[in-house]
Design a protein that fits this description.
With about 625 residues, the chain is of the alpha+beta class. It is about 40% helix and about 20% strand. It has four domains: about 5-215, Heat Shock Protein 90; about 225-360, Ribosomal Protein S5, domain 2; about 390-480, Rossmann fold; about 500-630, Four Helix Bundle (Hemerythrin (Met), subunit A). Bound molecules: adenosine-5'-diphosphate (ADP). The site of adenosine-5'-diphosphate has 17 residues, from α2 and α3.
């Protein structure tokens, strides 16, 4: 017999980086390496079943589907083997030599940026095969593929810089065996009690038998198929933790069995915390799809729409064919009906929660609302979706309060026909915005939006029941003016005389001249109460913050032209009229107009040049200090 040919390969850079973190900074979550290996074995067995179901010829077809774990306390050796699809030499190089997961580089970055929290991050995410090097000083993989004529191969590495591969001379059966030579400080993983408890904790619901020596360890399977009454809260929690890798219990458990028209069981969970570590971790969602207790697809992304991606769980149906391929799932009518039904189960559950336990619903909203809001294009479920939305509102006590459209409508003024909202960076910014003043004056509620996404939500749903959703920038003043004022404690200024009214009109004309083509127009305002001036967006279709978002994408920074509105009943404006009457050319008029315009721009986030504004403020402060010292007779 010829000597086996050994080939040496370097690890790819990102694997070296992952190994470095795994080996040097993690101590408390080390046990999850076993979860990762068992999960790989289970995947390999699933893949085999899948091949077998579609009629592929399989080597050693009579082998039972199982996972075996053995240990040797003296040799510090732990072995995990399975009768799954196995790997060819090429498989080994491509699968074990690279990190295929999407977002893995982002994951690595998170890990190295948050070393302190690494245990937590590792625990929540599948880190895969390489986690074995947290506990191993050497690992040997012996594997034989299900494909008839591919030789058995061995892979070995100490996890430092390279690995070796060679063909095995001895013949082994189909599947994969992983021998783990434990580090001295990891000898606990060669102790029976410790291994057994790790399997029970992390892998109890694996659907293939796991034997420790010859004893079957995992006992519970297909919990979702059991009648609800026979399942304890602990069992649900255990299953959830197994499924999600979450260390906390779920916020909600939704277990449903449907018999007609299509049979399926679903067991779904809403996590207490959102899993969104990496911005929108878009790939990491989906439900596990089973057909007659057989896993067809892990993290299927079509059973629930993306905006319900925070839901974890499984769906199992009798009515789908076992040999259905993942590619044709989407076109399958039964699958489609199941997904429609699962989606409406989740939405109905949330509706009940919102109604019966509003405080708990608020907790849900704070965790998952951001993702949920992305559902604005789910037209089929628009009604439920709208009812489940929450916003902060002028009628809430502070920024943490939440209001639904339903509540808003129940508090509406008698002749109010529209729901109003305004967008801004924070509650304090929105609530002092001049646009809001007329609403305060009339006692009309305004929804405050702080998340740019909210604007998309509003402009795509457009209506709640019969009420149009309107940005406060786009209101028709006439509608509001008709409504009664709430009592105001501030004494109103006297009406202007006819002559002063004329002066005011020429002052407005003068302002228009000063501002030139920087504004569309200068007009008397009906909406202002406490502010002297504000800028009004003339675009009926789009709010100014929406315009800003769109312009940002086209890198256009020139501000949109707006109309400047002036509050005739503001003390400052009254004084301007007096000065204007005495001398229309007075420098004070010019400075004040510029100042009013620029502060209004500042409030809208549109001011480009802050220097002239600051210089002018300083000049005017200097003047008013003169006035102050003289009035107070200070020498
Ligand atoms: P992941 O399982 O997330 O894909 P891993 O690093 O754990 O990442 O594994 C990489 C790949 O190696 C797997 O996708 C699979 O193709 C292969 N693999 C790992 N373990 C086994 C096994 N026991 N049997 C067959 N293939 C395996």
């Amino acid at each position: 017999m010829s000597e086996p040919v050994t080939q040496k390969y370097e690890f790819k850079a990102e694997i070296k980086q992952l190994l470095d973190i795994l080996v040097h900074s993690l101590y408390t979550s080390r046990e999850i390496f076993l979860r990762e290996l068992i999960s790989n074995s289970s995947d390999a067995l699933d893949k085999l079943r899948f091949e077998s179901n579609r009629g592929t010829t399989i080597l050693d077809n009579d082998l039972p589907s199982e996972i075996k774990i053995t240990f040797d306390e003296k040799k510090l050796l732990l072995t995990v083997s399975d009768t799954g699809i196995g790997m060819t030499k090429e498989d080994l190089i491509t699968n074990i030599g690279t990190i295929a997961k999407s977002g893995s580089s982002e994951f690595l970055k998170q890990l190295s940026d948050n070393k302190d929290d690494a245990n937590n991050i590792i625990g929540k995410f599948g880190v895969g095969f390489y986690s074995v090097f947290m506990v191993a000083k050497e690992v040997i993989i012996k594997t034989k593929s299900y494909k008839a004529d591919s030789p058995a191969v061995e892979w070995r590495s100490d996890g430092l810089g390279d690995y070796q591969i060679f063909e095995l001379n001895e013949d082994i059966k189909r599947g994969t065996t992983i021998e783990i030579f434990l580090k001295d400080d990891a000898k606990e993983f060669a102790e029976r009690y410790r291994i057994e408890s790790i399997i029970k904790k992390h892998s109890n619901f694996i659907s293939f038998p796991i034997y420790l020596d010859s004893e079957k360890i995992n006992t519970v399977a297909a919990l979702w198929r059991e009648p609800k009454s026979s399942i304890t809260k602990e069992q649900y929690q255990e299953f959830y933790k197994f499924l999600s890798y979450d260390s906390e219990e779920p916020m909600d458990t939704i277990h449903v069995a449907v018999d007609a028209p299509i049979q399926f069981n679903s067991l779904l969970f809403i996590p207490k915390k959102n899993f969104d570590f990496f911005g929108f971790n878009r790939e990491d969602y989906g439900l596990d799809l089973y057909v007659r207790r057989v896993l067809i697809q892990h993290k299927n992304k079509d059973l629930l729409p993306e905006y319900l991606g925070f839901v974890k769980g499984v769906v199992d149906s009798e009515d789908l064919p076992l040999n259905i391929s993942r590619e044709t799932l989407q076109e399958n009518v039964i699958f489609h009906k199941i997904s429609t039904s699962v989606t409406s189960q989740v939405l109905s559950y949330l509706m009940r929660k919102a109604k019966d336990e509003p405080e708990k619903y608020a907790e849900y909203w704070k965790e998952h609302g951001k993702l949920f809001k992305l559902g604005y294009s789910d037209f089929t479920n628009m009604e439920k979706y709208s009812q489940l939305l929450r916003f902060n509102s002028s009628f809430n006590e502070d920024a943490s309060g939440l209001t639904s459209f339903e509540e808003y409508v129940s508090r509406m003024k008698e002749d109010q026909k529209e729901i109003y909202y305004h967008f801004g960076p924070s509650r304090s910014a929105v609530s002092v915005n001049p646009h809001i003043e007329i609403f305060k004056k009339k006692g009309i509620e305004v929804l405050y939006l702080y998340d740019p996404l909210d604007e998309f939500v509003m402009s795509s749903i457009r209506k709640f029941k019969d009420y149009d959703l309107k940005s406060v920038e786009q209101i028709e003043m006439k509608k509001l003016e008709k409504m009664k004022d709430v009592e105001s404690e501030k004494p109103e200024l006297e009406e202007l005389s006819k002559q002063d009214n004329l002066q005011f009109s020429s002052l407005l004309e003068n302002m228009k001249k000063i501002l030139g083509d920087r504004v569309v127009d200068v007009k008397e305002s009906q909406r202002l109460k406490d502010s002297p001036a504000c800028l009004i967006n003339n675009d009926e279709m789009m709010t100014s913050s929406m315009q800003k978002i769109l312009r940002m994408t086209s890198k256009d920074t020139t501000p949109v032209k707006k109309t400047l509105e002036i509050n005739k009943d503001h003390k400052l404006v009254r004084n301007m009229i007096k000065v204007f009457k005495a001398n229309p050319e007075d420098e004070f008029i010019n400075d004040t107009v510029e100042q009013l315009f620029e502060t209004a721009q500042l409030l809208d986030g549109d001011l480009v040049d802050t220097h002239t504004l600051v210089a002018r403020v300083n000049k005017m402060l200097e003047q008013s200090s003169e006035w102050y010292t003289s009035v107070k007779d200070i020498k």
